[in-house]
Specification:
The protein has 192 residues and is mainly β. The protein has one domain. The protein has no helices and 14 strands. The strands form four sheets. It has a four-stranded antiparallel sheet, with no helix packed on it. A hairpin with a 4-residue loop joins strand 8 and strand 9. About 5% of the residues have low confidence.
């Protein structure tokens, strides 16, 4: 990444690849880079989420289901879900949906990737829509640093393994607990 955060260089197949974002520089700052379990590279920017896959970039934003275009932090859990913390849209989790192969296609499975996005309901009006940091502990509990405090998110029921298994359209429920200075959490203004 260059010093302005508007281009990215990476090695792929022994070849150095440089990508410079084409739109207005102010909206293209790279905020986070993550390589997932499958070797895909995800880049969170102020203007959306980029995916490096099959030797090309793919862009995702609110029109593909993200709660906000400004992606500040990414983490992958042990089940392969990608968690995205946004600046103004809260928290979402997503995963790639494998496009079905088209019979007779010259490049089966290389169609433009799509994502399944689940917006995570968080305590409203407490600053939880601004997510600064994410951590997944050894028990699979997600911790999020938000403007409103430290958020602990625990899944209440198992997640279906595939979109077909979730034919009822239900989104997993999470138990959310927000810890603030009132709970003893230290802040910059704390005198303890």
């Amino acid at each position: 990444m260059d010093r302005h955060g508007d281009s990215l260089e990476c090695l792929a197949g022994g070849q150095l690849i440089t990508h410079r974002w084409q739109a207005e520089r102010a909206a293209n700052k790279v905020r986070v880079i993550l390589s997932d379990q499958e070797g895909n590279v995800w880049v969170g920017r102020e203007s959306g989420l980029m995916l490096w896959r099959d030797d090309q970039w793919h862009q995702f934003g609110p029109s593909q289901g993200l709660p906000h275009s400004d992606v500040r932090v990414l983490r992958e859990d042990r089940d392969g879900w990608l968690w995205a913390g946004t600046f103004g849209g809260g928290l979402a989790r997503l995963r790639l949906i494998r496009p079905p192969s088209v019979p007779g296609s010259a490049s089966p499975g290389r169609d433009a990737p799509q994502i399944e996005v689940q917006k995570i309901g968080l305590p409203v009006g407490r600053g939880t829509d601004f997510v600064w940091a994410l951590h997944i502990d050894a028990n699979g509990v997600l911790w999020a640093g938000t403007r409103g405090g430290l958020l602990r998110l625990v899944q209440r029921r198992p997640i279906p393994a595939s979109p077909a298994a979730a034919s009822g359209g239900s989104v997993p429920e999470f138990e959310a607990r927000l810890f603030t200075a009132e709970d003893g959490l230290l802040t910059r203004s704390s005198t303890r």
